Amino acid sequence: MSGRNLEKMASIDAQLRLLAPAKVSEDDKLVEYDALLWIDFLIFFRIYMGKTSEKRFKIVMSFQLTTKGSVTLKSWRSLGMLNSLDPGDSIVVTKSFSHMLNLANLAEEVQIAYRRRIKLKKGDFIDENNATTESDIEETLKRLVVKLKKSPEEVFDALKNQTLDLVLTAHPTQSVRRSLLQKHARIRNCLTQLYAKDITDDKQNSMRLCKERFKLPFVLMRSEGLLLLHKMR
Length: 233
Known about the structure:
The protein has about 230 residues and is mainly α.
């Protein structure tokens, strides 16, 4: 890696790049969000699950970052310790890996959403859909008519063609899923604030809100670990 790139990444926590320098995205903003979530996640992992479980989880994440489809025999051997885990530890590592992937997806979603909003401005109805702030119906109609120069007839036709997809489910895990969605929404909002402020001095206050949301999965793993073990058996 060149000196120029190292200088460019000076503000980013280097843990992700050290794990897989050739595989991590070149998007500095995305990597910085990944690193922030990664560090906070590991802090709570160590507190609630212990250093041994943290080490196992790091092995899984390193394997995921370094392979990217090119799996070697050496890579598989590095995961040999996972074969000896008891069912309870296997559940912890698996759930943690899944949770970390969700956090990475949130970081990518926030970054890409802002990038797309910049690129997709076309002076049409789609601009309102990609707007970064919410507005009431009166403000929305005013922007469409005054700013985008749409006639009342065009606005009416666009509203008539709107569709709404409803997904109905009676799955027993719906309440858990809803809780996770709410938690992810709060983390996404924190990342959005960080993006808007361009990592200002308020970063720590915003990230403190995110950190509180990391506690949920570990509390669930500790309190429901025995129940999960029985279910798997």
